[in-house]
């Protein structure tokens, strides 16, 4: 006899009983898995927060890591509409009088009135030669080549020395139109001026009589062209001393300073000074990011006695290690310096009761005014605060750093919990099958016994003289 639904034979809710037994067996372990997994996830998140604060602090450190960070110069112009200026760390602190005498121009040539009625006019055969400074290139022009052909040949020449050709279609002044060929140097300056010579009919002689007249190909030589724009070098005067450039940018005249002419003008001035503002901004960023890091340390390791809640990394060895190491580096004097100070406190940066850095602006301003270059040694020397802190922090946040190893270990622990869950699931499935088999066997037995009991009761009731309690 078989029982298709567990519990029918015995009247017991076998499914509910099995589920209760499975829950009793699995629930404690599942709860422990959930708790451990949540703890590991929270620790990973906490270490992510710690790494983020350390990385931001490291970025601020790296902006103070090079001596050139403390040698920046600020250059100002009295009138940016006349000239602009930039200075690097090699510039001398000084002032100069500036006059923009002349702006650089690119050379431009254009064919004269009445030479060509349209862009499809032929020019004449021979050789065109273009020269700029000491470089030149030549083109062979055929008898059927038009203005358009010449324009394209110039622009497509692989050895073009630095000029472009274009065609203008304009009014001819008598009710019609005409075309003009325009030559423009790519770059400004006298050295880029365009010189055009021709050898008409390919006789191999440039500048003979046929090459100098105003007909045929010789219509394109300089003497037969108009000049809308003369090639000019840019010129400025620095303290009345003339300086020229092929463009409007002047470098080298003043060490570490670049002047760019914008418009002609006299009576202007240029000042180069120490860029104290930039350095102070970097130091303030360093302080702010350190204080944010202190807040992170505090939040991850705090304990609230009233609520009996603890920071996620309270007691964690890695957190204690980095916290102690950073604080030690911040407060320790820098060895090997020849400057007038070796600690942050000596330049106006001290630690308050909460462990945060506090800046005395007056003290720092005095250092910037009187010991500007020495300040760089405190931060950016080999043993300086920025370099030692950068090395320290990198050991924690780097790709092979301590925090990476810590989070990798936590991730492995979470993976291990997933594997343990799978093992538990397989064991509970096996236990469920075993319990169902046992209860099904019991159900079958109870059902069989009940049937036998009913049969025997019926047989006894039918015997002669049998006692019948209801009669």
Can you walk me through this structure?
The chain is α+β, with helices and mostly antiparallel strands and 471 residues long. The chain folds into three domains: 246 residues; 74 residues, no CATH class; 122 residues, no CATH class. Helices cover 42% and strands 22% of the residues. It is built from nine helices and 19 strands. The protein has a five-stranded antiparallel sheet with strand order 1-15-3-11-12, with no helix packed on it. A hairpin with a 2-residue loop joins β5 and β6. α1 runs antiparallel to α4, α1 runs antiparallel to α9 and α5 runs antiparallel to α8. The longest helix has 60 residues. It is elongated. The chain starts with 13 loop residues before the first helix and ends in a 10-residue tail after the last helix. The mean pLDDT is 87.
What's the short version?
With 471 residues, the protein is of the alpha+beta class. The protein has helices at residues 14-62, 147-156, 209-212, 276-301, 317-331, 361-370, 372-380, 385-397, 402-461, and strands at 73-77, 83-87, 94-102, 108-111, 126-132, 135-141, 163-171, 177-185, 195-200, 225-229, 234-238, 241-245, 249-251, 257-261, 265-274, 303-304, 309-310, 349-351, 357-359.
For the structure shown, list the relevant keywords.
471 residues; alpha+beta; 3 domains; 4-stranded antiparallel β-sheet; 9 helices; 19 strands; elongated
Global shape: elongated
Helix content: 40-55%
- What is the beta-strand fraction? 15-25%
Counting DSSP E segments of at least 2 residues, the number of strands comes to 19
Write down the domain tally.
3
DSSP helix count? 9
Structural class comes to alpha+beta
Strand order of the largest sheet: 1-15-3-11-12
Q: Tell me the Rg in angstroms.
A: 46 Å
Termini separation comes to: 35 Å
Low-confidence stretches: none
């Amino acid at each position: 006899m078989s029982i298709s639904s567990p519990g029918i034979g015995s009247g017991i809710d076998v499914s509910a009983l099995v589920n209760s037994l499975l829950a009793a067996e699995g629930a404690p372990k599942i709860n422990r898995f959930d708790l451990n997994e949540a703890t590991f996830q929270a620790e990973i998140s906490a270490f992510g927060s710690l790494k983020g604060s350390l990385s931001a602090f490291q970025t601020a450190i790296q902006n103070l890591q090079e001596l050139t960070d403390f040698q920046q110069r600020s250059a100002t112009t009295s009138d940016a509409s006349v000239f602009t200026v930039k200075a690097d760390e090699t510039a001398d602190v000084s002032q100069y009088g500036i006059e923009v005498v002349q702006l650089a121009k690119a050379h431009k040539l254009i064919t004269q009135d009445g030479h060509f009625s349209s862009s499809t006019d032929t020019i004449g055969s021979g050789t065109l030669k273009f020269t700029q400074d000491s470089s030149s290139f030549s083109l062979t022009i055929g008898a059927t080549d038009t203005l358009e052909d010449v324009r394209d040949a110039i622009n497509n020449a692989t050895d073009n020395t630095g000029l472009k050709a274009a065609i203008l279609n304009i009014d001819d002044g008598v009710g019609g139109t005409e075309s003009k060929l325009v030559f423009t140097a790519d770059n400004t300056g006298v050295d880029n001026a365009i010189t055009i010579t021709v050898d008409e009919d390919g006789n191999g002689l440039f500048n003979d009589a046929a090459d100098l007249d105003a007909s045929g190909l010789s219509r394109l030589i300089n003497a037969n062209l108009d000049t809308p724009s003369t090639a000019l070098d840019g010129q400025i005067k620095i303290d009345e001393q003339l300086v020229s450039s092929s463009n409007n940018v002047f470098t080298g005249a003043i060490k570490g300073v670049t002047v760019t002419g914008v418009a002609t003008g006299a009576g202007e001035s240029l000042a180069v000074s120490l860029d104290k503002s930039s350095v102070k901004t970097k130091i303030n960023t360093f302080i702010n990011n350190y204080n944010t890091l202190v807040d992170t340390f505090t939040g991850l390791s705090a304990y609230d006695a009233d609520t009996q809640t603890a920071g996620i990394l309270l007691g964690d060895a890695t957190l204690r290690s980095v916290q102690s190491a950073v604080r030690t580096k911040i407060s320790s004097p820098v060895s090997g310096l020849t400057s007038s100070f070796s600690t942050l406190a000596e330049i106006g940066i001290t630690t308050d009761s909460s462990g945060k850095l506090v800046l005395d602006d007056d003290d720092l301003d005095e250092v910037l005014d009187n010991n500007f270059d020495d300040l760089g040694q405190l931060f950016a020397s080999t043993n300086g605060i920025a370099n030692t802190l950068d090395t320290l922090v990198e050991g924690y946040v780097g790709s092979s750093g301590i925090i990476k190893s810590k989070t990798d270990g936590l991730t492995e622990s979470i993976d291990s919990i997933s594997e343990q869950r799978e093992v538990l699931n397989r064991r509970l499935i096996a236990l469920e099958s075993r319990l169902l088999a046992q209860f099904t066997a019991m159900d079958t037995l109870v059902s069989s016994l009940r049937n036998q009991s009913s049969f025997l009761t019926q047989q006894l009731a039918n015997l002669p003289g049998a006692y019948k309690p209801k009669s």
